[in-house]
Amino acid sequence: MDGIKHGTVTANGIRIHYVEAGDGPLVVMCHGWPESWYSWRHQIPALAEAGFRVVAPDMRGYGRSSKPDDIGAYTITHLIGDMVGLVGALKVQTAVIVGHDWGAPVAWYTGLLRPDLFRAVAGLSVPFRAPFALPPGVKISDMVRAQAGERDYYRLFIASGFGAETDFEKDIRSYILGVLYSVSGDIGPGRQWDGFMKRGQTIRDVLTVPKRLPPWLTEADLEFYVAEFERTGLTGGFNYYRNIDALPRQLAPYIGRTLEQPTLYLCGEHDVIAGNNPEAHTAMKAALPNLRGFHALAGAGHWLQQERAMEVNEHLIGFLKGL
Asked: Does pTM surpass 0.85?
């Protein structure tokens, strides 16, 4: 991509690779699964042109950033520490943090824990959920398992062992394309994969692999993702899911606290992944006193900043310029 620079810092005990463009107030953009900094390829030049310094890291476990072997090195506090360390290494006093998919809870909770450093937060495709307590002995995975009933769920499948890696590595290209297409708006209303499978199925079994690429994904885009995961594997990204049960206790000191900073939320009209439902949206709106925008983009699915790049850019730039 023209106009971007690659950089690397050592922060929070790991190597963090990032790309950046522009000058001005810092905006840090956190990607999700299974992606990389490249998922922000449409936002980086647009925000830079609008007067911001945009930094998009490869998150821990992805791309050219470090991939610790220890599964326990991928908890939410590790991820928050990475973003705090990245901003410190860039020698900047304050930043806005933006996150999509797994990057959204990283952004939400980074802003929650360090409001002194992150002056505003924008989340895409995963709504904010305030820290909460669970009954003694109950885990998030137990709650998900109860919701799944006789079915399996992709988070449980990933967390249950290394079968997810075996499933993924059979054909990386079709796996990545299937994941991108199956929860996008292009597959059609009511056909999006909701993350559930029959018992005994793998993720690959329930994906739809299109014969033609959706209009927002070029062959070059797909090949970038494929080449990254052929080189790195996906264990790093899967390890985020293997630490979900640690999240409530790590956030327990912040129960009763919320984000006071300006916030923004964007999602796709047809996104059925990661709690995008009216109940979660209502709870988020009630929990965020300075929510300056909530936008469900018509016809879009989960990969919002790629499916609706121009709309996302307009909302982000408007939010940033209004701070």
From this structure: yes
